[in-house]
UniProtKB/TrEMBL annotation:
This is PhzF family phenazine biosynthesis protein. Belongs to the PhzF family. The keyword Isomerase applies. It comes from Marinoscillum furvescens DSM 4134. Gene3D superfamilies: Diaminopimelate Epimerase, Chain A, domain 1. It comes from the Bacteria. The keyword Isomerase applies. PANTHER family: PHENAZINE BIOSYNTHESIS PROTEIN, PHENAZINE BIOSYNTHESIS-LIKE DOMAIN-CONTAINING PROTEIN.
Length: 264
């Protein structure tokens, strides 16, 4: 029986403001590993996302798993992988390949790193379904389809913060997830990410959602450099800017543990 090196990170944090971000355990594996084994490790670790990294020749590969299923794109897991590369690979810049492309990232300063993600544009406005304001308990100003989660625009930060979703009602639709957003009072915008069909229900600090939000609010506010807060129970802090055809997300991180994980 071998052992895998691992380290767990909080990312998209601002501890001075009591924002504890999202957690991912990064596990370095020697090679691509059967999905059933990766899923079992993720279930045992019970983190919002477990990030598996391995190297094939000169290319780093990555997969992400929640305790109950694989995640096709995990922004906070990618951020944790960059933090791991800074700490353990002495890499100021890092590139990883996943099933749909590649993500680049690197060191921003001693306590922050960044990832460059493909922007996820809003495809078109949808008619607001009858169930949605009832399920969210707030008025809905606009509703957009994207290639990832659906975008819901609300009136105010207060409404988003105080929202008490009815997840049973949200599950009456086959829509995977909802990013609920509004203008912020101290930040440019705020959001919450709801995923009613998976175990977690609401994500803590979601990089992939901000690949939707940064282009949307950049167009609305006519600015390329934005600040944001995710209003989950843990809270998340984001800086973002559009660089060419990429969305750069910048966030603070902290390593919270490290060790050896026995293989199955």
């Amino acid at each position: 029986m071998g052992a895998y090196d691992f380290a767990s990170y909080r990312v998209f944090t601002d501890l001075k403001k009591g924002l504890y971000g999202n957690v991912s355990t990064v596990v370095r594996i020697p090679s691509d590993t059967p999905e059933t084994q990766l899923q079992q490790i993720a279930a045992d670790l019970a983190q919002p996302a477990t990030t598996f990294l391995w190297k094939e020749e000169d290319t780093w590969k990555v997969r992400w798993f929640a305790p109950d299923s694989e995640i096709k794109l995990c922004g906070h897991g990618a951020m944790a992988a960059v933090a791991y590369a800074m700490d353990f690979l002495q890499a100021d810049n890092f590139e990883m390949h996943y099933s749909s492309g590649k993500i680049s990232g690197g060191k921003h300063n001693q306590t922050s790193c960044f990832t460059d993600l493909k922007p996820i544009p809003t495809e078109h406005a949808l008619e607001i379904p009858e169930y949605l304001p009832k399920a969210l308990g707030i008025p809905v100003e606009a509703f957009y389809k994207t290639a990832n989660k659906h975008l819901v625009v609300a009136n105010s930060e207060t409404e988003v913060r105080n929202m008490r979703p009815n997840f049973e009602l949200l599950r009456s639709s086959d829509i995977f997830g909802y990013v609920v957003t509004a203008p912020g009072s101290e930040m440019d915008f705020v959001s919450r990410t709801l995923v009613p069909h998976v175990q977690q229900l609401e994500d803590h600090a979601t990089g992939s959602s901000h690949a939707i939000l940064m282009p949307y609010w950049s167009q609305v506010l006519n600015r390329s450099h934005l600040t944001a807060q995710q209003l989950s129970k843990r809270g998340g802090a984001f800086q973002g800017k559009l660089i060419g055809s990429s969305v750069r997300l910048i966030g603070q991180f902290q390593k919270i543990n490290q060790g050896k994980l026995c293989s199955l």
